[in-house]
């Protein structure tokens, strides 16, 4: 979902002309796209780490909680930024980012809210120490 937001935002930023140039040339838009890309990639890498640990018979509980937290929040932030980049169009059903925004919120709630994931992560770290990372 975060990747879809990123792709839609890049496409729109290259196509939408404002003040005689694509909005992707404006620093504010560039920063949103940069932050979006970093957050999405962080969630992806944590997810790969958890999957690798699971595939190799390692204890992946902490890694999966971290992946769920980071990836779901990255998707929500990406969706929010995508709506901002699209401006008024970002809330119109004609643009996919409107649906991405609604769908991203669900990711922060289902299968354990972000707050629950934070509790799980903190409890495991407080019990076992940072060396379990």
From TrEMBL:
Residue ranges of domain Acyl-CoA dehydrogenase/oxidase C-terminal in the record: 3-126
Gene Ontology molecular function, alphabetical: acyl-CoA dehydrogenase activity
Record carries keyword Flavoprotein: yes
One Pfam family of this chain: Acyl-CoA_dh_1
Transmembrane segments: none
Keyword Flavoprotein recorded: yes
Essential cofactor(s): FAD
UniProt entry keywords in alphabetical sequence: FAD, Flavoprotein
UniProt family annotation: Belongs to the acyl-CoA dehydrogenase family.
Name of the featured protein: Acyl-CoA dehydrogenase/oxidase C-terminal domain-containing protein
